[in-house]
Design a protein that fits this description.
The complex is a heterodimer of chains A (about 375) and B (about 130). With about 375 residues, chain A is of the alpha+beta class. In chain A, about 20% of the residues lie in helices and about 30% in strands. Among the domains of chain A are: about 130 residues, Gyrase A, domain 2 (2-Layer Sandwich), CATH 3.30.1360; about 80 residues, Elongation Factor Tu (Ef-tu), domain 3. In chain A, strand 16 and strand 17 form a beta hairpin. The longest helix of chain A is centred in the middle third of the chain and has 12 residues. The relative contact order of chain A is 0.15. Chain B has a single domain, classed as RNA polymerase II/Efflux pump adaptor protein, barrel-sandwich hybrid domain (OB fold (Dihydrolipoamide Acetyltransferase, E2P), Beta Barrel). Chain B has a 6-stranded antiparallel β-sheet with strand order 1-2-3-9-8-5. In chain B, strands 4-6-7 form a 3-stranded antiparallel β-sheet, with no helix packed on it. The chains are: A alpha+beta (about 375), B alpha+beta (about 130).
Chain lengths: ~375, ~130
Amino acid sequence: MGLKTPLHDVHVLQGAKIVDFGGWDMPLHYGSQIEEHHAVRRDAGMFDVSHMAIVDLHGARVREFLRFLLANDVARLKSLGRALYSCMLLPNGGVIDDLIVYYLSDTWYRLVVNAGTRNKDLAWIRAHAADFAVAVSERQDLAMIAVQGPNARHKAASLLSPPQQSAVLDLKTFFGAEFGSWFVARTGYTGEDGFEIMIPAADAADVWHRLHAQGVKPAGLGARDTLRLEAGMNLYGNDMDENHHPLESGLSWTVAFEPPSREFIGRSALDEARRAGGPELVGLILEDRGVLRSHQKVMAAAAVSGAPAGEVTSGTFSPTLNRSIALARVPFPANAAVQVDIRGKLHAARIVKPPFVRHGKALIEIH
Amino acid sequence: MTKVPADLQYTKSHEWVRQLQNGAAEVGITDHAQSALGDLVFVEVPDVGRTLRAGDACAVVESVKAASDVYSPVAGKVTASNAALASQPELLNQDPYGAGWLFRLDTGASSDAAGLMSAAAYANFLADESK
C-alpha cells in the first residue's frame, strides 16, 4: 500500500490501472495510454500530479537564499508570478533534483519538486534555509492537476467566473497567479500549452469531475512519460541524477554562470566540468523497428571493438512519430549515425536535437 | 473480466496454445497478458523454419512501457508467423486469441502437452496470482 493523492478514489472509479511511482499509488493509464497521449496532443488531457511536493519559502532573505541554493538564478525573475526551471545541486555538481520556482512576492517563493525526491529535497532545503532565516513549509493541503493540450486552457478557464476567465487566459507562458482558491500556472511537462492548477485538496475531486465534464480526458503516468520524452524533457532518476551534473544531462541552459560573482552550491564543480568537457545528452531516433529502452548501449556507427560507448537514459515508442525515440548520454555528440544494442543486435539510430514534438507537430524528419 | 477460452491450453507465463489438425499448433499471448502489458507497439515473431524447444524464448512483445519475452509452450518447427503484427501490433490488444496470434508450429506426431494448463486451471492460476 503506497501513499495516495486526494484523487486516488476517483482514479479507481474511472478504471485506472494503478502502479507504484516513488512510493505513491498512481494511475498508469485509464485503458489506453496511446489514446491518452493523442488526446493531449490534439485536444486536452489531465494528469493528477498531486504526488509532487509544493514547498513555500518565506523570509526577508529568501531571494538571496535561492540564489545560493539553485543553479539557475532567481534574479532572472523580474515580474511577480514568473516561474523558472532549475536544478538543485550537490557541491560536486550532481543533481539532487530539478524543480520549478515561482516568484510570488519579495518574501515568498514557491517550489514544486519531484515526488520521489521529496524527503531528501526537504532535508537539503531546510539544512540550508536556516542560515538565511527562511521558513520552509510543505503544502500538503494542496492538490495539483496538470491540464494540457491545445484546448486545455479554454476548457479549464470555463470553470472560473467570467472576470477570472479572461485574466487566466491572459497568463503568459511560465507565469502563475492566484484565482480565488486556485493557483494557476501556464506550465507543463508535455510540450503542449496548458495549465498546472494547485487547489485545496478537498476540492480536487470536484475540479477533476468538472474538467472531465468539459471533455478533458484523464491521462496517466504512461502518457505523461511518452509526452515528456517527445517534448525532449528530462525525467529525474533517468536522464539526470546525483551521479551526473547538468552539463552532461542536457541542462547547461538551466545553469546561470553569469554573473561570475554569484556563488551557488555546485558552482566550482561546474566551472571545472565546463573547462574539461565530456559526454552530452542527445536525442536519438531509431531508424529500424523496435523500441529504445534505458541502459541500452549506444555505439558510433563505425565503432571498433572497445571504443567508448554511450547509454540510453530514457527510451520509448513515440505515438506521434510512430517510431522509437530516446535520450542518450554519449561521448560522441557530433556523430549523426549511431548503433544501439537491443537485446544483442545492433540497430541503426540517428542523433537529433530534441524536442521531437512540440505543439502537436513533429520537429524531426522521419526517413 | 479477462477472457480465458475453454478450447485452449495455457502456460504460467501467459501464452496460449490452440491444437490444430495433424500435430499443428497455434500460439499467442493471453488476454490477461495483453492487458497487463498495455498498448503494444512492437512485436517480433520467430522466423519460419526455426526449431523450438518447449520454454524457448522465441518472440518479443513490446508495449509502450516494457519489452516482454514470449516462450514457446511446446516443441516444434515454426511453419508460419503472423506478419500482420509488424504493421498492426494493436491486433494483439484487440483480439489476442484470434487476429493477434503469434506463430504456428509443427509439433510432430506427438504434441507434448505436459505442463500446460486447461482453461479452468489457468483461470484459477490468475485468481491466485492476483491475491
